[in-house]
Amino acid sequence: MLAYLIRRLFAVAVMLVVIMLVVFGIFFLIPQWTGVDPATMYVGKQSDAAALEGIRQKLQLGDPIYVQLAEFFKGIFVGRTYSGGGDVTHCPAPCFGYSFRNEQAIWPVLADRLPVTLALALGAAVLWLIGGVAAGVLSALKRGSVWDRTAMIVALSGVSLPIYFTGLLSLAVFSFGLGWLDGQFVPLEESFTGWLGGMLLPWLTLAFLYAAMYARITRATMLEIMGEDYIRTARAKGLREPVVIGKHAMRSAMTPVLTLLGIDLGALVGGAILTETTFSLPGLGQAVLKAISERDLPVILGVTLITATAVVVANLVVDILYGVIDPRVRLG
Amino acid sequence: MTDPLSRTGATVGEPVATTSAPPTAFLEVRDLRVHFPTDDGLVKSVDGLSFQLEKGKTLGIVGESGSGKSVTSLGILGLHTTGQYGRQKARISGEIWLDGEELLSADPDRVRKLRGREMAMIFQDPLSALHPYFTIGKQIVEAYRVHHDVDKKTARKRAIEMLDRVGIPQPDKRVDSYPHEFSGGMRQRAMIAMALVNNPELLIADEPTTALDVTVQAQILDLIRDLQKEFGSAVIIITHDLGVVAELADDILVMYGGRCVERGSAEKVFYEPRHPYTWGLLGSMPRIDKEQTDRLIPVEGAPPSLINIPSGCAFNPRCPYADVPKGGITRTERPELREVAGGHFSACHMSPEDRQRIWTEQIAPKL
To answer: What DSSP letter does each residue of B84-113 carry, written as one string?
Structure first.
C-alpha cells in the first residue's frame, strides 16, 4: 500500500508540473507566437503606450522564453518581484499572477473565494452521494417496480433540467414564495445558521443535478453486481440479504461511483459558475465570470491553475480510496 | 423489502408436503420443477426430477450445458432465483426433503440458516465465486460466524485449520491473502475450505474442476473424496465430464432437457447404459486406456430449447434410434422413467431387448 501511495504521489507531482507548463504555454507562449502582446491582457481596456511598456518589462516579455518560464515557476513556488515602468511590486508565493490594474496579487483574492466554492462542492457532494446512491441501490433491487420507474424519471429530469432553472425555481418557491429561506449568502464567520440557511438551496439544487447521474450509475452497477458469482456465494453461505447487499454488493458498487466523484468534485471547484451566479455566492465561479467579461487575464490564469490542481488532487484521493477498496489495484 | 429468495413459487403445481409420505433417504427430491417465466415463454429448466441420496454417498448428475443440472442444485439451496433469469420470479414446485425436513414449504429464513451450515456448495469458477475485495480468511470467517456464535479470533483459527485441512501450504500466512493472489487450484481448495467450515451434511459441487488445469483437477477430486470420507457427508457432484463422476460417484443421474433420462449405480450406467443419450455421452468421451481406433462420436445436434422442448421424447430429434419403436411414438409420447434392472432406471420407448441388442452389437464395441 505504501509503495502504491508513493507511486501515486509522484505521478501527481509530475502531473501538476505538466499542468503548469501547459498553462504557461496557453497564457504566454501561444499569444507571443501568434503575435498577440500578452501585456494588453494585463493592462485592461484603457491602456496607454507607457503603461503597456511598463507591463512588458514587468512580465519580462522581451526576455527569452526559458527565462519567462523560470520566472513563472519561481513565482508559483517562492514568489516573484515585478520591476519595470518605474515601480517595483512583489508578489508572494504562490504567485498565480498579479493584477496591475488593481495593484493586487491574484492568489489572496482567489483564496478568499475558494472556501465558499469548496463548501458548495463538498456539501452538495455529500447530499448527492447519499441521495443518488440510495436511490440507485433501491431501484436496482426493485427493478421494474413503481419506485424504480419513478426514481429513474426523476433522475432523468434531474439530468436534463439546467441549474439556472431548478435553482431559480427553488428560490422562487422556498425563498420568495414560502419565505422559509432568504436565499442570501452569509459568511460562515458571521453566523453559522445564517451560512447554513444560505447554502442549503445551492446544495440541494446542485445535488439534485448530480444525484440523478449517480442514481443511474449506481443502479446499472448494482444490477450487474447482483448477478455476480460472488453474490451467489455470499447467499450460499447463509448470509442475510441485507449483509449480502450492504457488505458484498455495495463494496464493489462503490468503485465506479468513486471514479465519477473524483472528476465531478475537481471540476466543480472551478466550474460552479452557474450555481454561484444563480445564488449570488461569492465563490471562484463568480470571479471567473467577472474576469471573463472584463478580460482580466491573471484571474483566469489563477482559477485555471486552481481548477486543474483540484481535479488532480481529487483524483489522487480517489486513487488512494481505490487502493483501500480493491486490493488488486495496489499491485498497479 | 421483499426477500428475493422467497419461494412464493412453491404454491405453483401440486400442493406441497401435505399428503406425501415422509422420506426414507437423507436427501430426497420429489418431482422437482423449476420454471422461469421470460419474455419468450416459460423456460422449463427442471421439469419433474426425483432422486434420493444417502449420507456418505456421492451422486453424480451428468448432462450438457442447459440440461438443468445447475438449476437443480441451486433449487435445493433455495438460490434458483438468483440465476441468469433473475428478472422474474422463478416458479419452483415439488418436494425437497433434507434430513426429514421439507425445504420448499419451509420458511425462507429457516432455509437460509440451513444454507452454509447443513448444505454447502462449491462453484465452478472459484475466481469469480470468491469476492475479489476480501481476504480468503475473512470470507471463511464470515461463513463460519453466520452459523456459529464465536469471536473473530476463534473463527480465524478455524479458518486456518480448514485451509490446512484442504492442503494449502502456510495456512497461517495465506489466510490473509486475497483470491487473486492464489492459483486456480488453491482458490478452489479455499472454496472447499469455506464450504466445509461448518461441517455440512450435504455438499454440492457444481462443476468443481471445469475451470482448473487438468493436473489440478485430479487433486481436487481426490480432496473432495477424502473429505467426504472424513466428514461422512452426502455429496452431489454436477458435471458434464463423465470422467469426473467415474472417479467419484456411487450413483449417476443423467439429465436431458430438464429431466432425468437415466439413473442408477455408477457401474450400471457405465457398463450397461440403457439410454441412447448416455451412449452418446460415452461415445464422445476420449479414452486413453484403449487404443484409439475410431474418431470420437459426438452427439449430433444441439441441446433442446427449454422453452419449446420437443414433443414426445425430448431427445428424439438427435436420437439415431428414434424410429426403432413403431408408430412414431417417440415423437408423440414422453417416455416414463422405468426400471430396467434393480435400481437402474431409464426413460426410453425402445424395448429393453432392443436396447440390450443395440448396446452390445453396435455401441459397446466402438467404445
So the answer is: TTTTS--EEEEEEEETTEESTTS-HHHHHH
